[in-house]
Design goal:
single chain, 291 residues, mainly alpha, ABC transporter involved in vitamin B12 uptake, BtuC, two-stranded antiparallel sheet, 11 helices, 2 strands, 3% strand, globular
């Protein structure tokens, strides 16, 4: 049934878009770092999972336990060594955003260059849980369903972290107003470093999960950065619920267009939906107007 195909494919696609974008909304919403190397970090994690699976025979699920903590540590160091000097010299949040765009634009080419040196420009994939589950006549690959399940678990875990812990409350306070957060003894720079590192861990997890069912190469990072930016802006900067809704909207839109019109129109519908949201809700679906 075509409509069931579109719904199920849209759900799995939208769930992955939401997970990919959540890390970026943390980095930008809390640390005010617009990370243009975000997609390249995802691709680097995908190649790490590929190497662990094909070279060492390690399951991608076990690979998560290695890649995610490593990505967290690397992003924390990156923030402390590269981005803290930018934070110190920036006279305003707008100036920090511009500086971070320039810095991470350079980082984009560094990460992509390292991946190209190690793996070349060819496309890679690997077979992991490639079997198919039939749901109402609609075939869904086990690896896609597993990735969606992990995306839901990670999303729920992040929600509980941000809403049920003191550290999560501090992160939300910094996202809303860093000046006021300082007045209640919150270390804004430490919170920003934590948010940036968490975003890096989430994008690494996304890369490992995506690698289980997607063919990828070293130059594909920009595609994921673009999709993540669209979801973040559509949902409202710094809003996790907005990321979820916007990701699902994007996934369902792509799925229905591919099913009923033409798969070649999916990029067009991405930007059409993006522009429509910007016109109707300039601050995003769940964004708040600036005072």
């Amino acid at each position: 049934m075509p409509i069931l195909d579109a719904l199920l494919n849209g759900l799995t696609l939208g769930g992955m878009y939401a997970l990919v974008a959540v890390g970026l909304t943390l980095q930008y919403g809390v640390a005010r770092i617009m990370n243009l190397a975000y997609g390249e970090c995802l691709i680097a994690a995908a190649f790490a999972a590929y190497w662990l699976f094909s070279g060492l025979g390690l399951s991608p699920l076990l690979g998560l336990g290695l890649v995610v903590p490593l990505a967290f540590a690397l992003h924390w160091l990156l923030y402390r060594l590269l981005l803290v000097p930018l934070v110190r010299r920036a006279k305003s949040r707008a100036a920090l955003e511009v500086d971070s765009i320039l810095a991470t634009f350079g980082l984009l080419f560094i990460v992509e260059g390292i991946v190209l040196v190690l793996f070349g420009g060819n496309y890679y994939n690997y077979a992991y849980l490639a079997g198919v589950l039939d749901i109402g006549g609609t075939p869904l690959a086990y690896n896609r369903l597993l990735a969606l399940g992990f995306a839901l678990v990670l999303g729920l875990g992040l929600y509980l972290l941000l809403t049920r812990t003191r550290g999560g409350t501090a992160l939300r306070a910094v996202a809303v107003d860093p000046v006021a957060a300082q007045l209640v003894a919150i270390d804004v720079r430490a919170a920003a470093a934590l948010a940036f590192a968490l975003g890096g861990a989430l994008v690494a997890a996304s890369g490992v999960l995506v690698s289980m069912f997607l063919t990828f190469n070293a130059a594909m990072g920009v595609v994921f950065t673009m999709k993540a930016l669209i979801v973040v802006i559509m949902g409202g900067v710094g809003n996790l619920a907005g990321c979820l809704v916007a990701g699902l909207l994007l996934g369902f839109a792509e799925s229905f267009v591919a099913t009923y019109l033409d798969p070649g129109l999916t990029i067009a519908v991405n930007f059409a939906l993006f522009l429509f949201i910007l016109i109707v809700r300039p601050n995003g679906l769940f964004g708040r107007a600036s005072a």
